[in-house]
Write a structure and sequence with these properties.
The chain has 123 residues and is mainly β. It has no helices and eleven strands.
Length: 123
């Protein structure tokens, strides 16, 4: 049974940082592409960052240079380091897994999803 559990969300002020984690279990983690997605109230879900099975990364233009995705295959854990946070980064953030080597930022490739962790950026 695939399980993804996010943690690390919270409320911060603009310019501050947060690190999200996603603990994965129930499948061969290293073979899957992993991604972070977010959804703000009243908006569509959007891809934030993804890392493929070989470690290649891709970012949404809105977060490139501020966010860093990484994976620790020994710990079956995915991370998202978020720096220089802005109010427009406020959203529920979801971790997702895709049973393909490369999935990118299209959520249609992702079969498994976590419950989400809330990030709020406000002064």
């Amino acid at each position: 049974q695939v399980q993804l559990v996010e943690s690390g969300g919270g409320s911060v002020q603009p310019g501050e940082s947060l690190r999200l984690s996603c603990a994965a279990s129930g499948y061969t983690y290293s073979r899957y592409s992993m991604g972070w997605f977010r959804q703000a109230p009243g908006k569509d879900r959007e891809g934030v960052a993804a890392v493929d099975s070989s470690g290649g990364t891709i970012y949404a233009p809105s977060v490139k240079g501020r966010f860093t995705i990484s994976r620790d295959n020994a710990k079956n854990t995915l991370y998202l380091q978020m720096n220089s946070l802005k109010p427009e980064d406020t959203a529920m953030y979801y971790c997702a897994a895709a049973a393909v080597a490369y999935a990118g930022l299209w959520d249609g490739f992702y079969s498994f999803w976590g419950q989400g962790t809330q990030v709020t950026v406000s002064s």
